[in-house]
Design goal:
Blueprint: E1 2-6, H1 11-22, E2 26-31, H2 34-43, E3 46-49, H3 55-63, E4 67-70, H4 80-101, E5 107-113, H5 135-146, E6 153-159, E7 162-164, H6 170-182, E8 185-188, E9 194-199, H7 200-213, E10 218-221, E11 225-229, H8 230-241, E12 245-248, H9 257-260, H10 269-275, H11 284-288
Parallel strand pairs: 1-2, 1-4, 2-3, 4-5, 5-6, 6-10, 7-9, 8-12
Antiparallel strand pairs: 9-11
Helix pairs in contact: 1-7, 3-4, 4-5, 6-8
């Protein structure tokens, strides 16, 4: 396939681009900066100048592709307003790309987060979260899945709270970055809440499988570790960075505080059985041992 991808130069996107090229696909990737374009070109992809706000570029990219993978997000958590703007921008981008694919039976693979279900690990059958600080992302992905009725082979890969590689990435990466800034590795609550995780290289394989074979309107879980205790994650980070580890109020994490404090384990049993996806790369706790190296 000739694949159009957004977010192709990020931690997850660069792994997806490499996986697509490794398996014989060609890639055109959105690039909002010269640095991103250079990185994509070096990886073997064709850069397409533009950002998520350039809807005509997105429509053209989707229209000229055999399939689309969407990964880009502004990741501006500096304030509730900034986060809301990022969510709205993404929603408009997905609408534009989806409209370009209507009636074509071509795949559109979007990403979202795994849902949180009280008392148990969430599964692919659970509905995505559509309220809270990032609930708008869930509403956008739900609309993408609805395009199955309009002749789009739409699917969603739900990513866990931490997608990691070489000790960086996701919520665990944010904890480590804040620990470096503040000289203490803080975590919300009592540390017993669980975060699921996956290595970026394993997630990349699932995005490819969804692109190639996921039925229309389906959701899949890119989860390798069902849920590590946040206290255990913080302990590894603190030890590797040589800083103390302690509980802090959720508001120390700004708009993400309520999400950080929630218990959110998740399962990928159905995904692994139905799509033949098997994670093979290091777990989160193993990968965090690379911090400081």
């Amino acid at each position: 396939m000739h694949v159009f991808i957004t977010g192709g130069s990020g931690l997850i996107g660069s792994a997806v681009v490499a996986e697509l090229l490794r398996t014989g696909h060609t890639v055109a990737a959105l690039a909002r900066s010269d640095a991103s374009a250079d990185a994509l070109r070096a990886a073997g992809a064709e850069p397409v100048a533009g950002g998520l706000g350039d809807l005509s570029v997105l429509r053209a990219g989707a229209d000229g592709a055999d399939g689309v993978i969407h990964l880009a997000f502004a990741n501006d958590f500096s304030s509730p307003e900034a986060l809301a703007n990022a969510v709205a921008e993404e929603g408009s981008a997905l609408t534009a790309m989806g409209e370009a694919l209507v009636g074509s039976d071509r795949p559109l693979v979007a990403c979202s987060g795994t849902p949180a279900v009280p008392g148990r690990a969430s599964t692919e059958a659970d509905p995505i979260t559509t309220d809270g600080p990032v609930g708008g992302r869930g509403r956008s992905v739900t609309a993408v899945l609805g395009l199955a009725a309009d002749g789009v082979r739409s699917s969603a890969v739900r990513l866990p709270r931490t997608v990691h590689k070489d000790g960086t990435g996701g919520f665990a990466g944010l904890l480590a970055a804040l620990a470096r800034q503040r000289g203490v590795c803080g975590y919300p609550g009592d540390g017993s809440q669980r975060w699921p995780a996956v290595h970026a290289l394993d997630a990349a394989v699932l995005f490819r499988l969804a692109l190639e074979s996921a039925p229309a309107g389906t959701s899949w879980h890119a989860v390798a570790d069902e849920g590590d205790r946040v206290g255990d994650i913080a302990a590894v980070i603190g030890r590797r960075l040589g800083v103390p580890v302690e509980a802090v109020p959720p508001d120390a994490f700004g708009a993400l505080g309520p999400v950080f404090a929630a218990d959110q384990p998740s399962s990928s049993a159905h995904t692994q059985q139905a799509l033949g996806w098997t994670p093979t790369h290091p777990s989160l706790l193993q990968d965090l041992e690379r911090i400081g190296h």
